[in-house]
Structure prediction request, 735 residues.
Amino acid sequence: MKSIWRSLFIATIQWSLFLAMLFSTTSGQTAGPRVFPEGKIPQDRRLDDLTNLNGFFPFAVPSTKAAWEERAGQLRLRVQVATGLWPLPERTPLNVVVHGRVERPGFTVEKVYFESVPGHFVTGLLFRPSGKKGKLPAVLCPHGHGGRLQDHGADGIRQFIVQGHERFEGSGRFPKLARCAQLARMGCVTFIYDMVGYADSVQIPHRLRPDQRPIVDTKERWGLYSTQAELRLQSMMALQTWNSIRALDFLCSLPDVDAQRVGVTGGSGGGTQTILVGALDSRPIVSFPQGMVSTSMQGGCTCENCCLLRVGTGNVELTALFAPRPQAMTAADDWTKEMMTSGYPQLRALYGMLGVQERVLCRSLTHFPHNYNYVTRAVMYSWFNKYLNLGLKEPIVEEDWEPLTKEEKTVWNEAHPQPTGGVQYELDLMRYLSAVSDRQLARLVPANPEELREYRRVVGNAFRVILNNQDLAADHLQREKRSKTDRGDYLEFTDLVRKPASGQELPVVSLFPKHVEWNKQVVVWVDGIGKAGLYDEANKPRAAIQTLLNGGAAVIAADLIYQGEFLIDGKPLQQSRTVSASPYAGYTHGYNDSVFVQRTQDLLTLVAWVGNDEYAAATIHLVGVNGAGPLVAAARSQTGGKVQRAAVDTDGFRFVDLNSFRDVNFLPGAVKYGDLPGLLALSAPHRLWVAGEDQGVPELARRVFHAAGAPDQIEAFNGPAATVPVALANWLLAD
Prediction:
């Protein structure tokens, strides 16, 4: 499919170029030298179809335990950042209310509500074994899209019994509660809680589609699914994941629970939550993530997707983060049907490498469609019996029970009225969560080197995930020399720089001084229009570029992705591609780097290439002008001392001013971690020159440079915008 798309894409580009030449249309931009012939574009894999939730997500098992531990650390951090839980928010008082106890043979059921954050309620049912004393094992049960109160109906359950899905009309009609009842009879305190917008969770609707109601999206007022929310990593998945962690807090705090013997199991969307809880929380000792461990479809709901989560990974690898703790699942006739040959063998290999292969199991039940039915539950009961040390005789047979009445399973009543919700509540919650995060990160702004280390650990690592920095080694790059031209005052080279492993290509032009000795300095010049920004209307180097050449520096520029030779007509990209028409960023940027990130990675590629080129540059500088300032700020935040000096013309840009996730400068999480000043701050203690800021050096950057003991290494230029390029060129050449 990708090859077909690429062929059509290239054919369209070639036809457009033909028409452009036929009718002598121009883009108004000077092209400078081309690396590719007219009508050709880079064969860059990033021009293929975007990855979507229905893609293929294999798990490549690292070859050593040490390699897996490194990879697992990276993945766990990715999950934390993506779900808005880096750093982990303050655990506010739960203010737990337990009421409405009812009895059934072998167990009791109580209604529960508590506040995961002040004013936001998590609701559910608590099942406790009858007649048990001492500390008991516990099981947390997130549910899927059938809801906590899923009801197959009187006719439906009879069909399920005939088909072998269920055994009893009573309990099987309500399969999620049947699971809890049986676990309680087995001796486990079991808590099943509502996902956002289900049953008694009434404050925010679940919204399988974000456009089910208007999205509020301004800098002052924003709701879920808005650009402002994504810039702060606020999502339905993030909220539900925090609810799950707080539900685990509640369960482990109960006086009759042994917090050292806790398991987690959920199906479908609850399986997704089980995977995330297992990845983020060390307290569960056994897991049964049902129905979502797959190298195929990754979860279709907005609550199962968020920006950053599955870029370069997938559910099988995320499930592997639970290793070496024991976990099991089944394969069904759904997106998990290939697990026995794609996914499970890799999990077995990982567990085997860790010396505990017997701790992972996938049972093939592909004669059933998507389910957490009686047969699947039996596999789970046996697994939990073993690894929660319940000591029950096998086989464990689920028994029938008298279902709860509507009154018995409804949390809210006259004595416990349901809280207010609606649009305004959602907006208030987003503002509250943002304010809490802002205060938390403000406390991290350093005043000394020790505090700076912690700031870098938190904010630096967050941007490392957001920018998907892979620590590119120069030996992973290839250079294809294309041309060398003597321009009189300078030499002009064109090259194609490749990253074979990821299928990326960059058209590059390099200018070297001819009449003065090269000073071993290379300036990587980044312009919003690409390498054409080196040249004026007469195809001569612009004044700032000529200044650098006259001063003995070499200048290198490239067309970053969707610039210059990547474009059909030379016109700047106005909107980034998305996987669908859905107004939810998570469906696109949960699987794909944004254009901003891709361009930042292109700059890191250039820096790695220049730093190890055959000409052996002694010093590398990085410049961002004409809309490229934020890209250079981002790249410099990742290069450290590899770039001696960086000059950034911000033109007053802030991510918070974006009004669409389709904007080419969209960067998930950027506002949460300090916006553009946060990126500038991460340049400390290395030299940084900033233009385009009305108030001079941004306060956050100033404070971080001061903490690094380098207050004089950052400076602001306040001259006219037209003088910025030459001014920064002179700054780069100064001793």
